[in-house]
Design brief:
By secondary structure, the protein is mainly alpha-helical. Helices cover 80% and strands 0% of the residues. Helix 1 packs antiparallel against helix 2, helix 2 runs parallel beside helix 5 and helix 4 runs antiparallel to helix 5. The protein is elongated, with a radius of gyration of 14 Å. The model has no long low-confidence stretch (mean pLDDT 85). It comes from Photobacterium iliopiscarium. This is Flagellar biosynthesis protein FliS.
C-alpha cells in the first residue's frame, strides 16, 4: 500500500517537473510533494518486515528522484526567482534540496 502511494507521489512530482509551463503555485506544490514523498519513504523504511529488495528499490527510486530534481534544477531555480515571493521561494528551494537528498 505505502509503495503504491510512493509511486503516485513520484509520478506527480515527475508530471509537475515535466509540465510545459510551471503553475504559479509551483514552488509550494513541489515542496509539498517532495515532503510527502520523504514521509512515505520514512514509513516504508520503518516497516518491521522490510525486505532487502524493498529497501534497495526505495534507495534506487530516491536516487532517480534526486537526479530528476537535479536535472531540472536550473528551470526550478528560474521559476522560484520569478515567483512574487522570491525570498520565501528561495527558502522553499533550499528545503526541497534538503529533502531531495
Amino acid at each position: 500500500m505505502t509503495l503504491e502511494q510512493l509511486t503516485q507521489l513520484e509520478h506527480q512530482i515527475e508530471q509537475l517537473l515535466l509540465a510545459e509551463d510551471y503553475p504559479d503555485d509551483f514552488p509550494q506544490q513541489l515542496e509539498n510533494l517532495v515532503a510527502l514523498r520523504h514521509q512515505q519513504v520514512e514509513i516504508v523504511l520503518k516497516q518491521a518486515d522490510l525486505s532487502r529488495a524493498v529497501f534497495d528499490d526505495v534507495v534506487a527510486r530516491t536516487q532517480v528522484m534526486k537526479a530528476l530534481l537535479q536535472q531540472h534544477k536550473d528551470r526550478i531555480g528560474a521559476q522560484l526567482v520569478r515567483s512574487k515571493k522570491s525570498q520565501k521561494s528561495l527558502s522553499l528551494y533550499s528545503n526541497i534540496q534538503q529533502h531531495g537528498q
